[in-house]
Predict the structure of Bifunctional protein FolD.
Amino acid sequence: MTARIIDGKAFAAKVREKVAGHVARLKEEHAITPGLAVVLVGEDPASQVYVRSKGKQTVEVGMNSYEHKLDADTSEKDLLALIDKLNNAPEVHGILVQLPLPGHLNEDLVINSIDPAKDVDGFHISNVGLLGTGQKSMVPCTPLGCLMMLRDYHGSLSGMDAVVIGRSNIVGKPMAQLLLGDSCTVTIAHSRTKDIQDVTRRADIVVAAVGRPEMVTGDWIKPGATVIDVGINRIDAPDKGEGQTRLVGDCHFDSCAEVAGAITPVPGGVGPMTIACLLANTVTACCRANGLSEPEGLTA
Ligand SMILES: Nc1nc(=O)c2c([nH]1)NC[C@@H]1CN(c3ccc(C(=O)N[C@@H](CCC(=O)O)C(=O)O)cc3)C=[N+]21
């Protein structure tokens, strides 16, 4: 079997189009422009690239983008003061603090100081609790993007066996909650799971979010299963020339694609959907803040 490729890049473009439509309506009918503030502490080059692309896409869909770049040695007090300012700024509907933060900053403390209504990453403890109890919340962007692609491909996910590989707070755990919310039978596998291939081989849906390049190979996959590859790993590619690199997922694409029914590529899969969902969450937060009906099809 050769898997159908789920084109995250094209899907993300459709999500952005929907977002742009809602933004235009908010401007015309309510004179409101959704605003997203992104806070970057330090100068990690990969983070800078990512923040730049978020800012560009935010403006492209008609929203306001506010970028705050702080020195790597910024004190916790100063960072918390900035977040407090953004929490109280009416033109800011979404706040994202780029992770990871430099080691001297307490990530949990910083994230939990964001107004939960503006927490477009969905990492605030209050949003985590709301999601876990099936209440309306801000949903983390990467799992939301994965859910959108799965729903689009399968229609209903009800009764499917889903295995999430990885138990992180930003992907694995919220992904499992969302799949459970769509009535999947959910297993979370991780580095200590025994006979992990036997666990994944039972799954109709495998979501790989471990951060280990090409760990999941075709023999881990049940024929016809859907594989969502969350990993974005940069590895050396001496075949492309000295010092060259390439992006690969947590799944070994060629062997998985031979067995799976459908698979997301890296790049061009989950990554673009993550940014599209960040924009979607910002519009959702803006509508909620103004007591307006929420955009359909952009939330979980
Ligand atoms: N608070 C916070 N929220 C985040 O959502 C967050 C974060 N911090 N810190 C960093 C990671 C990383 N991340 C990516 C999103 C999209 C691509 C993406 O679109 N990647 C392209 C490839 C890009 C390339 O070519 O390098 C793709 O997969 O096709 C990558 C990485 C969000 N993150």
About this structure: The first helix runs from residue 8 to 30. The mean pLDDT is 97.
